[in-house]
Amino acid sequence: MDTFSSLLENTTLIKMVKLIAWILFIVFIISFVRKTLKKRIEDVSIRYKAQKSVEIVGYVLIIFLVLMAFTVDSFKDYTIIIGLFTAGITFTLQELILSIAGFFIFFSFAYINLVIVLKSII
Whole-angstrom Cα distance, residue 44 to residue 50? Predict the structure, then answer.
């Protein structure tokens, strides 16, 4: 009994057990969704792509969980890291994002103006 209570006090062991439980849960969900897709989708190529995409999303979740378990103690730290990362990407790609947005705005207004002119002619 004393050995069991000392194991429960070990935080690393508790983290590992939680991580393994989450990984097993994700693997179970992946297999369930794949079986459901296999039954419901008739087209073979679409079924294959759907099953592969479910597997990839599941593996990304597992990798994210493993990284989270071993690198940061709190989920709050990850939200800060993700926020700083996206802000850095946005700041770096600011001109590209503005160029793409301006392109779409210009051509959408040009299309609207063209439709208005064509309707007034007809």
Answer: 10
